[in-house]
Amino acid sequence: MTNLITNDEHHLWRLLNRIGVLIEKYEADFFTKTTITKGQFKILITMAIIAETKKSPIILTDLIPSLDCTLVSISSIIERMEKNGLVKKLKDLPDKRSVHLIMTPKGKKMLNSTISDNTQIIKDILNVLSESELELFISLASKVKNRLDELYFGKLVSESDLIKSDVTTQIINKLSKRD
Question: Which residue has the higher pLDDT, 65 or 105?
Answer without folding.
Answer: 105
